Amino acid sequence: MADSERYSAPGCWTACTSYWRTRKGLLLFAEILFCLVILICFSASTSAYSSLSVIEMIIAAVLFLIYMCDWHTKMPFINWPWSDFFRALIAAILYLITSIVVLVERGGHSKIAAGVLGLMATLLFGYDAYFTFPLRQQRHTAAPTDPTDGPV
User: Fold this and answer.
1) Which among 92, 74, 98 is positioned nearest to 131, based on CA atoms?
2) What is the average pLDDT across 112-138?
3) If residue 20 lies in a helix (H) or strand (E), which one and from where to where?
4) pLDDT of residue 91
5) 49-84 residue pLDDT tens
6) Whole-angstrom Cα distance, residue 88 to residue 112?
7) Were 68 and a residue from 19, 31, 95, 111 both cysteine, which residue would form a disulfide, CB within 3.0 to 4.6 Å?
8) How far apart are CA 80 and CA 132, in angstroms?
9) pLDDT at 142
10) CA 126 to CA 105: how far, in whole Å?
11) Section 2-9 average pLDDT
């Protein structure tokens, strides 16, 4: 019964998979990939800094799923733009700090690669925070018009 209901809505799968083509979908997907690659680099050298990559990858994957399935509209009690902004801002700051510490320590090649990729992830998360800043996304409203100014 559940399978027949799932296949009865062909537009649902299209709606879910079309999200990753948006700018936000691409950003979240790139963040997940960057976190995975950084996690692999840290695992090859030292696991001391890998928790940041794991946590950010999980949070980005959960948000990707929530936005992809349009569940954020079904949970209006959470302010999604501000939550996403603070997530990206905090991730950018933490990746910047962690990358600088890793690069100053001078480890093996994989540790240096993780530090450089962490700096790139800082830019990616900063870009995400900039474009998801809620006050930047003001809605355009039509200018009020005077009904007496119309054609005579």
Assistant:
1) 92
2) 86
3) none
4) 94
5) 788 889 999 999 999 888 888 888 888 888 888 999
6) 23
7) 19
8) 10
9) 54
10) 24
11) 43
Amino acid making up residue 86: F
147 burial (CB, 10 Å; 0-12 / 13-18 / 19+) is: exposed
pTM equals 0.76
Tokens of 99: 């990358």
Residue 21 three-state SS: helix
CA distance 9 to 48: 46
Q: Which two tokens stand for residue 70?
A: 């349009």
Token reading at 82:
């501000």
Task: Give the chain's mean pLDDT.
Answer: 80
Q: Can you tell me the distance from the alpha carbon of 27 to that of 107, in angstroms, rounded to the nearest whole number? A: 29
The amino acid sitting at 14 is T
Q: Are 147 and 141 in contact (CB under 8 A)?
A: no
Nearest to 84 by CA among 39, 132, 149: 132
